[in-house]
């Protein structure tokens, strides 16, 4: 260090200071402004990117909230449709049961009426056959009884005897 102080030259110092100050002015004019402008632009770009990211995040949250709301509405609508479907199904089943009962009752009534008419027809036919048979038997008996004189007399006496008893 002593050697520096011994070799110190005021003229050289002056010129070195002058060159240094000139270099600072040149750097300030041509280097610092563009560097500072680039740094400021970069800082502004980063700030804008952060704002855009924040806006995008906010929009994404809004979209997610909308999606959740739409999904909830769709679920509610699905539940409503299912409930209506179940109600319609139950109504259709009840209507079908009622209609089946009405048709069954009509069929039973028709069957009963048919059975009754068949029964009446059979009874009428049976009565006709019984009366026909009775008439034939009575006719044969009367022919047999009336063909014989002794039998006729006995029959008349018997009838007269029965009439007196009453």
Poorly predicted regions are none
The SS-based structural class is mainly alpha
Number of strands: 0
Outline, from the CA principal axes? rod-shaped
Percentage of residues in strands:
under 5%
Helix content estimate:
over 70%
Determine the N-to-C terminus distance: 184 Å
**Rg calc:** 66 Å
Mean pLDDT comes to 87
Helix count, DSSP H or I runs of 4 or more residues: 3
Most strands sheet: none
Order of helices and strands: HHH
Short description:
With 166 residues, the protein is mainly α. 96% of the residues lie in helices and 0% in strands.
Name its key features.
single chain; 166 residues; mainly alpha; 3 helices; 96% helix
SSE map:
Blueprint: H1 2-6, H2 10-147, H3 149-165
Write up this protein.
This protein is mainly alpha-helical and 166 residues long. The protein has 3 helices and no strands. The longest helix has 138 residues, at 10-147. The radius of gyration is 66 Å and the shape is rod-shaped.
């Amino acid at each position: 260090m002593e050697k520096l102080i011994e070799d110190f030259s005021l003229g050289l110092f002056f010129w070195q200071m002058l060159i240094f100050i000139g270099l600072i002015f040149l750097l300030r004019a041509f280097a610092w402004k563009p560097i500072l402008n680039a740094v400021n632009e970069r800082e502004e770009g980063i700030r804008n990117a952060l704002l855009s990211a924040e806006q995008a995040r906010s929009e994404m949250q809004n979209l997610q909230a909308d999606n959740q709301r739409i999904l909830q509405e769709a679920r509610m609508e699905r539940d409503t449709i299912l409930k209506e479907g179940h109600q319609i199904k139950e109504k259709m089943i009840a209507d079908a049961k009622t209609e089946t009962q009405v048709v069954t009752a009509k069929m039973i009534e028709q069957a009963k009426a048919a059975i009754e008419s068949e029964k009446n027809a059979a009874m009428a036919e049976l009565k006709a056959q019984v009366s026909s048979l009775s008439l034939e038997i009575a006719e044969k008996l009367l022919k047999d009884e009336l063909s014989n004189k002794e039998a006729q007399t006995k029959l008349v006496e018997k009838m007269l005897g029965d009439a007196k008893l009453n």
